[in-house]
Amino acid sequence: MSKIKVHLIWDFDAAIGQVNATYPYRFSFQPIRDELKNVQYILDKADEFNFRFSFAVTGFSAESTVYPFEIKDIIKDIYSKGHEIASHSWRHEWMPIMMPQQIIKSIQRSKFILEDCIGVPGVVVGFVPPHNRPMTWVQKGAYSLGDRGLYPFFKGGNIDYLVSVLKDSGYSWGRFVYTKPVERVFKQDVYTSLKRGVESVRGFSIVPLHYNGFDAKAIKVIEQGVQLKKDVFICGHPSGLSRNGEEAIRHFDTFVEFLSAKSDLIDVVPVNSRYS
């Protein structure tokens, strides 16, 4: 029986991302420390089960600054263990409200500095937008008021624009979340239905997000993928392992053990393995 691929993409915000995603009255350094500790835990688990993941990392984390904002050694370690390094923008910006030149600079600078850190030009080919925004794709009739920056007033409020910039900047794939009108009408769960696979737009691959987390629902998604012979894309946050939710460490432990037990049916590999 042919195997399916499970792609686990980690949204690795790092210190700069957590600062930009946290309200001032909720800020604490402890979650930053926890996230870095959790990254090491994830790497150890990957080694234990011989899994390889994709880590979408904020580019600022590879700049020459100070710890914990600079984590070059951690980024190098992730790559040296066979995992993919993708871009999570430069500093975890809200892209729909950015001006075109800001978007271009963020996309290009993050790719450049991550590759410079790793020492391998052209190796960063994936992009994961912070906050999964924009969720508007005008050409497909998908709109989200939650983007705040609405197209055409803000070019960054349209997935199609980002695809063009990413492709021109040397990226091969991006993870984008959007809902078509028919899916809203019939309230289909696009995260767990697996009806959406990888889409090609002008030679650029749009990968889906089938589920965020590692709980029982995540396992159900994998079982559906095996049954339907469809590849599955799961999202996680290293910081989420420390919270009591669907990404909690107890769920992650059960999840990787489940994947290992199904190794005859599943390959756990990074997204860029599809293009190598």
UniProtKB/TrEMBL annotation:
UniProt cross-references to InterPro entries, sorted A to Z: Glyco_hydro/deAcase_b/a-brl, NODB_dom
A Pfam short name: Polysacc_deac_1
Start and end residues of each NodB homology domain: 38-132
Name the UniProt record assigns to this protein: Polysaccharide deacetylase family protein
Species per Swiss-Prot/TrEMBL record: Carboxylicivirga linearis
